[in-house]
């Protein structure tokens, strides 16, 4: 029996125009009515989840920053946080800047509310990247960016794709951190061992839910660990290869209400088992 639904947002639950369809809203509401916990698990920070929360009915738990930050949306309680240490992010920044001229960095801190962007970053950013206006990002020195631990340490280059940049980071041969990407035009460096699966496992332990009782949805490389960990991992029809490889099944795309389709089927299956 499924007791918790963990869903990515962008490219998964949200339609391409970043809205929640009426069918998806109804499916999520039906799952809650059946006693199933529904949890957004996203690369977004809480401020990026809040605009979606009302439309999707999220009022309880959320896992933000790729699992590094567990919060309760209703009370504002922080369940847990995992930070990239200053020494680790400095080692990455200095080694990568020497290898790849033009690379830029951002430190996301203090529950995702503080965004410290290196000078030049705002010029290549768009609102959709971080749900922040580039003009409000400020211009900081690299030392300012590296001065405090980060919930998420962002790495970006104007000319390199995230996959190309990921190869450069891995070529450094450094340890002490995790790195992923979510379909956005940058890499996301996290504390060592952290992933969406890491955060989801901690939340499930808190709630007394076994991994076999978890249904997870995702589409991007940063969803792969979560889909592999969950008892039932579902990749979207528009998913990246990393997510497709580990999923137990594939549903329709986010434009075709793929999440709702599976939830509706699961609710029917569970109702049949109870009769």
UniProtKB/TrEMBL annotation:
SUPFAM superfamilies on file: HAD-like
Record protein name field: Sugar phosphatase YidA
CDD domains: HAD_Pase
InterPro entries per UniProt: Cof, HAD-like_sf, HAD-SF_hydro_IIB, HAD_sf
Gene symbol of the encoding locus: yidA
């Amino acid at each position: 029996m499924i007791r918790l639904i963990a869903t990515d947002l962008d490219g998964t639950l949200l339609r391409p125009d970043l809205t929640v369809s009426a069918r998806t809203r109804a499916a999520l509401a039906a799952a809650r009515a059946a006693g199933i916990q529904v949890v957004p698990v996203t690369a977004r920070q809480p401020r990026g989840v809040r605009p979606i929360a009302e439309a999707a009915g999220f009022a309880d738990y959320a896992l933000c920053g790729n699992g590094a930050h567990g919060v309760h949306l209703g009370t504002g309680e922080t369940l847990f946080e995992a930070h990239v240490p200053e020494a680790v992010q400095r080692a990455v920044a200095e080694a990568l800047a020497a290898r790849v001229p033009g690379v830029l960095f951002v430190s996301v801190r203090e529950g995702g509310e503080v965004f410290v962007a290196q000078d030049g970053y705002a010029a290549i950013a768009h609102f959709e990247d971080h749900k922040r206006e580039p003009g409000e990002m400020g211009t900081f020195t690299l030392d300012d960016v590296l001065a405090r631990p980060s919930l998420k340490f962002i790495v970006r280059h104007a000319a390199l794709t995230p996959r190309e940049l990921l190869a450069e980071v891995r070529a450094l041969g450094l340890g002490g951190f995790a790195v992923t990407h979510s379909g956005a035009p940058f890499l996301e460096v996290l504390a060592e061992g952290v992933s969406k699966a890491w955060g989801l496992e901690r939340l499930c332990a808190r709630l007394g839910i076994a991994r076999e009782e978890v249904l997870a949805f995702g589409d991007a490389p940063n969803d792969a660990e979560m889909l592999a960990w969950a008892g039932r991992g579902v990749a979207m029809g528009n998913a990246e290869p990393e997510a497709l490889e580990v999923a137990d099944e594939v549903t329709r795309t986010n434009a075709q209400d793929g999440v709702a389709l599976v939830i509706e089927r699961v609710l029917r299956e569970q109702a049949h088992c109870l009769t």
